[in-house]
Amino acid sequence: MIEEGESADQLSEIKKETYTGLLLFYRDCDLRNELLLNYKKNQILKENGFTDVSVFSEGLSKNVRFTIATNKAINMAKINPDVAKFGFFVLRAPAYYKVLDIYKEENKTHIILLHLNMEYIPFYKYNTTAIDEQIIKLAKDRFSRNVVSECNKFLYEDEWLERTKDPIGMTNDGELFLPLIPENNNKK
């Protein structure tokens, strides 16, 4: 559903800002089942802290894989070459995500997130694009290949495990960080 008052130019700008140069990044963590049940398809999440992710997709070191589609990740190896071994990128805080899909394979849960600009939340709250479906397919294909492969040894290091142990978009007790959804100014 496209919101009333959205012009073709506005829709083009939203899609350009969200999808141009999009890459997939990964974050694995162990989450209790009751926390996993808090995630819902098409849900909009807010992450209050920085989101640490890796470009390395091989293997899964934990029971949950977050795959994040974004064009705004910052390569931390350019700032500190010592973290290049982690394939370390970061997303600035606060970050907003739409849950594109959630499913299980090989007793692992895969949560696919689309990174959004805050001002585009009203659009993505009610709309899914063909590109979103392509992201889901690509992420699932990679997950299926990588769920059975050996994990990158650097992603088992204590430093990385400490950085990525928390869920995205909620506290460790399961309290969601739901964003206040701004209303579309053009909506009547």
Notable traits:
5-stranded mixed β-sheet; disordered C terminus; 3-stranded antiparallel β-sheet; alpha+beta; 188 residues
Order of helices and strands: HEHEEEEEEEHHH
Beta content comes to 25-35%
Radius of gyration: 17 Å
Low-confidence stretches: 184-188
Q: Give the tally of structural domains.
A: 1
Task: Provide an overview of this structure.
The protein is built from five helices and eight strands; from the N terminus they run H-E-H-E-E-E-E-E-E-E-H-H-H. Strand 7 (95-105) and strand 8 (108-116) form a beta hairpin. The chain has 188 residues and is α+β, with helices and mostly antiparallel strands. The chain has one domain (11-163). Residues 184-188 have low confidence and may be disordered. The chain has helices spanning 8-19, 33-36, 121-126, 130-146, 158-163; strands spanning 23-29, 44-47, 51-54, 64-70, 74-75, 88-91, 95-105, 108-116. The protein has a five-stranded mixed beta sheet. Strands 3-6-5 form a three-stranded antiparallel beta sheet, with no helix packed on it.
Summarize the structure.
With 188 residues, this protein is an alpha+beta fold.
List the SSEs and their pairings.
Blueprint lengths: L7 H12 L3 E7 L3 H4 L7 E4 L3 E4 L9 E7 L3 E2 L12 E4 L3 E11 L2 E9 L4 H6 L3 H17 L11 H6 L25
Parallel strand pairs: 4-8
Antiparallel strand pairs: 1-4, 2-7, 3-6, 5-6, 7-8
